[in-house]
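ok new one. same drill as before - structure tokens go in, u give me an amino acid for every spot. 199 of them this time. try not to just spam alanines like last time pls lmao
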């Protein structure tokens, strides 16, 4: 068996960190707790993370990358474009729901000022990652001559409409329960947005 690479080591540490965060919340998890949960010495953790804040930000980044990876996986190979955009929106809502428990635990256990700052940070990073995925979808559609050529400004406006639209719909869904009645407006949003790309 080959030795564990630093990336695998870090992934193992972050998995343990997220388990601890779910159970206790970030403010109550110490470097000693993380060391114990991973079977490492506290000193060995400092090779990867110098402070609890570094661990926290790495955990947030890991969550965001996991969400982005799952959305990319969901939309891969989906055709036509209308269906791909619809799938993006549904995947975004489903995956957000899956992470809700962890994130709610994290936010509720933190001091209000730190909570607000952390929430804003993850929101901006998620919007950025979602924008990249949508731009990848547009780039492939443009290359395949499925849509008209778009200016950078048009692309940014379109991405904003989709990401803000899906968040608006999400805020109206009780407990993010994706019943058929809530899927219908998502279908309307995706069809309207993709029709504009072809006009």
């Amino acid at each position: 068996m080959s030795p564990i690479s630093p990336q695998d080591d870090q992934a193992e540490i972050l998995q343990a960190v997220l388990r601890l965060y779910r159970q206790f919340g970030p403010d109550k998890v110490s470097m000693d707790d993380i060391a114990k949960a991973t079977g490492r010495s506290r000193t060995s953790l400092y090779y990867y993370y110098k402070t609890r804040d570094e661990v926290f930000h790495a955990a947030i980044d890991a969550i965001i990358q996991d969400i982005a990876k799952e959305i990319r996986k969901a939309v891969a190979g989906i055709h036509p474009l209308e269906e791909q955009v619809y799938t993006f929106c549904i995947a975004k809502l489903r995956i957000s729901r899956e992470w809700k428990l962890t994130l709610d635990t994290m936010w509720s256990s933190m001091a209000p000022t730190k909570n607000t700052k952390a929430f804003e940070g993850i929101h901006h990073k998620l919007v950025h990652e979602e924008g990249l995925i949508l731009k990848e979808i547009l780039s492939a559609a443009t290359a395949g001559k499925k849509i008209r050529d778009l200016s950078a400004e048009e692309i940014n406006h379109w991405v904003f409409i989709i990401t803000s639209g899906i968040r608006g719909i999400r805020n109206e869904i009780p407990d993010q329960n994706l019943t058929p009645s809530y899927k219908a407006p998502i279908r309307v949003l995706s069809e309207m947005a993709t029709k504009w790309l072809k006009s």
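Residues 1-5 have pLDDT under 50 and may be disordered. and btw Helices lie at 6-24, 31-38, 42-45, 52-75, 81-109, 112-143, 152-171, 180-198.
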